[in-house]
Amino acid sequence: MPVYSREDDILATKIVSFFPQNKDVSTHHAVILVFCAHTGIPKALLDGDVITAKRTAATSAVATKYLVNGKPDVLALLGSGVQARSHVAALCELFTFKEIRIWNHRFDGAVKLAKEIGLNCAACRDVSEAVKNADVIVTVTSAKDPVLRLDWVKPGAHINAVGACRPDWSEIDADLMKSAVVYVDSREGAIKESGDIILSQAEIYAEIGEVILGTREAMRKKTTVFKSLGMAIEDGIAAKLVINKLGIQ
Ligand SMILES: NC(=O)C1=CN([C@@H]2O[C@H](COP(=O)(O)OP(=O)(O)OC[C@H]3O[C@@H](n4cnc5c(N)ncnc54)[C@H](OP(=O)(O)O)[C@@H]3O)[C@@H](O)[C@H]2O)C=CC1
Ligand SMILES: O=C([O-])C1=[NH+]CCC1
Fold this sequence. Notes:
Blueprint (H helix, E strand, L loop, with lengths): L1 E4 L4 E9 L9 E8 L6 E6 L1 H19 L6 E5 L3 H13 L4 E5 L3 H11 L3 E4 L2 H5 L4 E4 L18 E4 L12 H6 L1 E4 L2 H7 L1 H4 L5 E4 H6 L10 E4 L4 H15 L3
Parallel strand pairs: 5-6, 5-8, 6-7, 8-9, 9-12, 10-11, 10-12
Antiparallel strand pairs: 1-2, 2-3, 3-4
Helix pairs in contact: 1-2, 1-9
InterPro entries: NAD(P)-bd_dom_sf, ODC_Mu_crystall, ODC_N
Protein name: Ketimine reductase mu-crystallin
Family: Belongs to the ornithine cyclodeaminase/mu-crystallin family.
């Protein structure tokens, strides 16, 4: 995933592998190689795992800030892996949830994460139970077929759809995609790589950047989906923050 911004002095590339069948080691591994954007001199080789976890969750948190309808009380997470953990951390920086619910396809994964999060968190056996009346839903699974259905979602909820990064995979059912107002990180990426968009043929209303810039509306009262695939600029900006903090010129 290469990124270049001369004005931000960012020239970097991330290489990320995804082995969803891994059991005792992480399913994603990443390195980020950073160069000087003016001379091309290599500056740093960074571990990309933590940056991938944190920048993806930070992006969802920003999308939620713009698209959520009022003050959210209930957060539901589908999936209990690396991104589920980073999403709880990032969303709890911005919002105070009264209740957090976790569903995972293996119940013990949900139980483990619910224990880690603590008092206001419960593990759920069914997706429908987890998302009932939820204000914010995050899908962070390695599922190839939809796990979240229209009938279970409260009208006006906001969904961050983070998994299903291949054109033939989807986490969200087509009826939900088609009835929601759909925002993406990158239109160009979404129409080529997102099964949630391609298979459902849902219309993309806007990129989240257009909402932040004020050129497209945040339809807060409607059910909204932010379809995230991940962008190299997220890695470049995060890598720059890290090397600045370390004092690397
Ligand atoms: N949009 C973006 O920028 C990014 C998206 N991603 C995507 O986010 C998703 C989560 O990533 P991450 O948390 O790092 O991965 P993890 O492997 O840490 O977690 C994956 C989760 O999905 C569950 N899972 C595995 N197979 C299935 C299945 N068939 N049906 C339902 N759930 C399943 C796993 O359960 P168990 O472990 O119990 O099997 C686990 O809870 C992936 O799809 C990944 O590619 C990742 C990085 C960036
Ligand atoms: O942006 C990213 O790093 C990824 N998106 C899907 C898998 C990894």
